[in-house]
Amino acid sequence: MAVKQRLQTLxxxxxxxxxxxxxxxxxxxxxxxxxxxxxxxxxxxxxxxTREHDVAALARALGARELAPGLLCVDHQYGDxxxxxxxxxxxxxxxxxxxxxxxxxxxxLGFLDTETSGLAGGTGTVAFNxxxxxxxxxxxxxxxxxITGFAGEAAMLEALAADVAGLAALATYNGGSFDLxxxxxxxxxxxxxxxxxxxxxxxxxxxxxxxxxxxxPDCRLATAEALLLGVARDGDLPGSQVxxxxxxxxxxGDGARMGDVLAHNRQDILSLLALLPRLGxxxxxxxxxxxxxxxxxxxxxxxxxxxRALQVLEAAPALDRAGQHELARLYRRxxxxxxxxxxxxxxxxxxxPRALEQLAKFHEHFRRDPQAALSxxxxxxxxxxxxxxxxxxxxxxxxxxxxxxxxxxPSHAP
Amino acid sequence: MRGNTMATAAEHAIEGESRDPVSxxxxxxxxxxxxxxxxxxxxxxxEATFADMPAELEPRLRAALxxxxxxxxxxxxxxxxxxxxxxxxxxxxxxxxxxxxxCYNLPVLHSALTEGSKALYLxxxxxxxxxxxxxxxxxxxxxxxxIRAYTFxxxxxxxxxxxxxxxxxxxxxxxDMLHKGVLPHHTKWAQFFEGLRxxxxxxTHTYRGVFGSHMANVMRRLRxxxxxxxxxxxxxxxxxxxxxxxxxxxxLVGEEVAAITESGAPAGQKQLLLWNPPVINxxxxxxxxxxxxxxxxxxxxxxxxxxxxxxxxxRLMVEVITKYLKDVFDSDPRKPAxxxxxxxxxxxxxxxxxxxxxxxGEVDCVVATSALELGVxxxxxxxxxxxxxxxxxxxxxQRLGRAGRRERAALGVLVASSQPxxxxxxRNPEFFLGASPEHARIDPDQLLILLDHVRCAAFxxxxxxxxxxxGEDLEELLAYLEEQGVLHREEDQxxxxxxxxxxNSVSLRSMAEGNFVVIxxxxxxxxxxxxxxxxxxxxxxxxxxxxxVQAQPYQVETLDWEGRKAWVRQTRADYYxxxxxxxxxxxxxxxxxxxxxxxxxxxxxxxxxxxxPGFKKIRYYTHExxxxxxxxxxxxxxxxxxxxxxxxxxELARAFPSRQEALDxxxxxxxxxxxxxxxxxxxxxxxxxxxxGDGNARWFSxxxxxxxxxxxxxxxxxxxxxxxxxxxPAVFLYDNYxxxxxxSSPLFEQRRAVVAGARTLVAECxxxxxxxxxxxxxxxxxxxxxxxxxxAALQVLEVLAGDGG
Lengths: 414, 805
Known about the structure:
The structure holds 2 protein chains of 2 kinds. By secondary structure, chain A is of the alpha+beta class. Chain A has 2 domains: 55-284, Nucleotidyltransferase, domain 5, CATH 3.30.420.10; 319-408, Serine Threonine Protein Phosphatase 5, Tetratricopeptide repeat. Helices cover 50% and strands 12% of the residues of chain A. In chain A, the strands form 2 sheets. Chain A has a 7-stranded mixed sheet, with helices on both faces. Chain A has a two-stranded antiparallel ribbon with strand order 3-4. Residues 1-26, 38-47 and 400-414 of chain A have low confidence and may be disordered. Chain B is an alpha/beta fold. The interface between A and B is large, with 51 and 54 residues.
């Protein structure tokens, strides 16, 4: 009321006082705003809704059923070994075998992905589509919820809670930073303080980064599924267009591209399922997948599995310098000193000071050959630590051998 | 000002030399420069008034206070406790160093200990937050209270944030962080909001104008979120002295707030001198510059071993005075600096260093802008010199409060510049010394600001039908946003439907977006040396500008307006630069007008185009103009509200022999009216813009190099007023923010007082033909030609006052 009254007052005043030169139509709120934003560029005026939201037609087009007002649900079933866009679905009793992740059978997990109104985060971002793959009976079931309005969100969250109840863990791609916090926010907004989601979570982004970051252009899911599964998506909707599809439906009742969102989301969750055992395999045999052996070995080491880490590095067709160092270190810890020394020798020949130092230690402490140790230590660069080592070794050499050195070495001059 | 004694310089007898070095300096100044001191005020030392600790105070907290030597409270602290305990929103208005922090720490800690409740502390700047946590931590440690107080701001590391959200008893942050980092993620703070019992707003007086209007809306959003989580916190505010603390606090909180205004804390004697620089050209009424006087007084203070602070009115003046003082005290580069500059635009780290040096007593003198007016802890100062009247009575007392803490004498000197307001104040000392401080005004329903926060609030939680948010018709605003596709209405709720994070595009500190960074490329590298806010970038960072940082001149080489960057190089220029500013206005609509037979005054909406076509180079010390440069910057456009005064064309022709003279009269009158208006609406002069021109934007008027008024247009340059077919000059005083922040309507109400005040100022000025103290600077040639700009201005003001004005 306040605005309208004020506007009426303004209009009447304008009629009384405005001279002919500056008579202006009394502004309504829109005009007032438009004027104040001088220099802000053209305002966006969007078309008002042109048609009613035809939920039944959308449901038909998506092959969905209406679970509750504002909530649609689509189920797809897949047998074991089914191939989706190139991704072969594994058997439910397979285990992921990822280091540091819950070692559950695939059949006890849920693979989840959300499509949202934006990437900005915060309470204004909503997931309008949630996809979940899990084992139902003898098949994999990809269940997708789509809300056709905000009224359906509470029902969607409730239905999801029922679906994930009893699952050992959820698997996602970057869900640790995005999907799960978002869902927790949504549950909180609907009055549920502790989101009813499994406590355990497997975020596939992290193992992918561990294994492939040095070798791939990026670690997006699309890259992972293309390179590890051979998935080729046909006419896939780019993720950046997803929010627009939701807004088209909300603002204009235009659901034409909603099917594309669901297809995109479904492929995401099916790829997650297919990807998980492949990643497990890549951790055990990185060479076979073009993965980073050192990354895999470190992951095993974090779990205290030194033997497996060593095995992974030994099997690697080519190791970079850091990898060779790590392998040598593991050899040493395993008591396989000769093998470690051979690696250090090779590295030292390339002028690696760290290898020289290790080799010097090896000769000093294991071979008990201070002469060989010293000649290696002499090649080490300047530095207090290295200098102490050299001095210690010199002291341990027979006097005759050290005398000429002392004469030549200015650092020993009085 | 109860208990103060007032005396003019003449009445003040010179007493024997005092032992106290501050009084000794005051006596020396009075002896040597008695003629320049037009008034003085001595506030005697004040004894403390105590009250008992509340009996119900949590025993561990009582013990912790005892540990720190606090066994009873000052009377205002006890009154605050009683009011807050009764569940009333409360604002405490007390001077610097009166123990205001205990007013809010006491109830907050008590209820955290007894009920496990939470508190949110809001400080206007990050620096203040850190000081506050340090203080809480100290009290906490003294009593082993186990209270967890954390700061939450841009510097809080990501992995610590969760602990702050879930475990903090007291979370200390700033409005910007609350607006951008907390409210849009309130679900993560759910626990905190559920237990939120107190919201503390310190330095409440800083939330005025645009910032305050934003703040009030952030508080609306905060309370809305609290309601969602079922809490209704009590607000505890603290403020420096302003006329309307309860009103401002109520505007911010959105509910009635009780005010506690009487301090029970002790204070040392304070002496204030009003200082008018000596006249150096009696004919033109030109006085010595205030900076020369300020520098002189400060030199004497520093030489007397007194810690001194100089407040200058602009960043530029800070740099100029710093240079003058450094020339004296820091001539040996091998010795640590004794003089430091402190102002906005310096990098936070540099400011922290200066604060530390001040607290540690390593620096003898600091030259600052209002950036130091806030509660930044710099230890105690002995002498405070104000270079120019800060613009408001409240700001004057806040700055003077920097000198002298508890039981220690302090001296303040207000040095008048040649600005009319300054001159008015030093010539009428009883006005200033007896006046109450200003009202702090906010306009939380300013349409653009309100709309911004309606967007942010809709992002945080959907709006429901029947909900209220601000004074405008919420449903109409929501409908507007729905039309824009920002919101979607479903049944009785409006939901956010945009792929964006609205708080990121709303800056609380200004209406325009994007600070400029100043990058030094002297050493071949790219080092950021300062930041400049958008609104002042055009007049400070144009190519060729001399930009000063700690009195070191840099010359701007390249300005990337779009990218908000200025590349500068160190220089040794012996001049500084000052931008020329052309403003053209077009009246769009008048809301209200007061028409008389001879003149007309109106209030309405205007469209304004501001162009900065060039700059002047001004040599240090002599202040002579040593050259010009061109500036090529985009025009800045603004739509705002204004009050304007016009004289009917027939009347104008009757009253003035020539259009030229009328124009000169308008320019002089505008000068005086601008300053009186700023005083009348109790804003700072910079919040109001001034222009003389044609209301149809055909031409605008400036003072040309010959000292006479010119009319020009952007297209045609200088024009001849006699040839102009439409000659209807108007004085415009406009609200200097897009959309206006509500200054023009109180101004319109005071239109008669503005004209009458300007007329008194000009008529009673002691000069002959005009001077900077009334109609603005005039040239000697006018005098010789027998033309008096002052007389012309008076003529304009008389017609305006006669009727319709």
